[in-house]
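Homework help board

Subject: predicted structure for assignment chain

Our instructor gave us this sequence and asked us to write out the predicted structure in token form, then describe one feature. I got the tokens but I'm not sure how to describe them. Can anyone check?
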Amino acid sequence: MSDTLTDTKHKQALLQRLDDIGRSLAATAGTLALVGLGSAGSETARMDDFSDLDFFVIVQSGVKAELIADLGWLTAVHPVAYHFKNTDDGYKLLFEDGIFCEFALFEPAELAHIPFAGARVVWRSEAFDVSWLQPKQHTASQRDTAWLVGEAITNLYVGLARYRRGEKLSAARFVQGFAVDRVIELAAYVEMAQPAFQDIFGQERRFEQRFPETAVYLPQFMQGYTHTVASARAILRFLETHFTVNTAMKNLILGLCDDSSDSPGA
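My token output:
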């Protein structure tokens, strides 16, 4: 029960902060709307103790640069402990009370070219047209198994070759990163997805809840910097179990595994 209460308090704090930002924007010249995204958007029910604030500020043409350069409209809401400009359009920012947020400022004409989903208008001026919040359709695409398996096994090969060359960082990324990304996509062909929020911009989000049978193998697929070979073997076994793997590529991968070592000095 204590966890639920904590989540509820944090959620209330996040939503209150958004409302406060909306009021500040209402008093700031040239602003049109505050739009919540992600769990701060249309799906606030999934906010928990680890949620942050993602939002867009929509502004009139000609004032964007000024409002990006001077964050007085935001610092007036609550003291800020840290911030940095991570894109041309916005910031990542930490308030002193621990609320973290990512935000960007856009003019109405830019919205049609910005990928986003689940938007919720927190505040808007009379000049704001809600039809502007109709972005191009972005859905999580499901690529065919031949492409996914092909990418996975070639990532294993490239990664292991680099491991043998002594490029262990690059090897770990190819095997335990890129190849695993393809396994994540292949999970939909291995088991039925369980009901859980799906982030169309990040298929790794809530993967453990959505594909529990495949998720069991993740520790074997990502065993760490000095265990790329063992990770590659585990991924290859998984792929062979559920899909058709080209024999020549399989033998090439196994050969690199046999000629390699997971010891730190290899």
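Reply (TA_rk): Your tokens look well-formed. For the description, you could write something like this. The beta strands are 31-37, 53-59, 80-85, 90-95, 100-106, 120-124. That's the kind of observation they're looking for.
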